[in-house]
What we know:
Layout: E1 3-5, E2 13-14, E3 33-35, H1 49-52, E4 55-56, E5 62-63, E6 69-71, E7 75-76, E8 83-84, E9 89-90, E10 94-95, E11 101-106, E12 109-114, E13 118-120
Antiparallel strand pairs: 1-2, 1-3, 4-5, 6-9, 6-13, 7-8, 10-11, 11-12
Amino acid sequence: MTHYVCKGGCGGVSDEIGVCETDGCSSQWEMMEECDCTNGNHGVESGEESVNLVVKDSNGTVLNDGDDVVLIKDLPLRGSSKVYKRGTKVNGIKLTDNPEEVDCKVGGSGIVLRVEFLKKV
């Protein structure tokens, strides 16, 4: 049975072609992609998700746990007046379940960064 799933990881599913309308989704208002799965896993077998997860930086370079990256844009920290400047080096990132985000520590604070603002060193 053909259906459509959101690429943003929010779990949005629709029987008709359209856009994801989930508030807070990283792919909100983007087209959903077609899926023909029969088991409801949308192309991911149980226990296989972390094996097939490919995370890429802003230049398309594959990132792995423990890689060092550099910020390519000034990023203000939400809820604070702190701004992480372009060129700030981040040591030892940790991949998450979402291929668009990584966990890391910057200036002693544990934060989640979007990979679109990172470049592998």
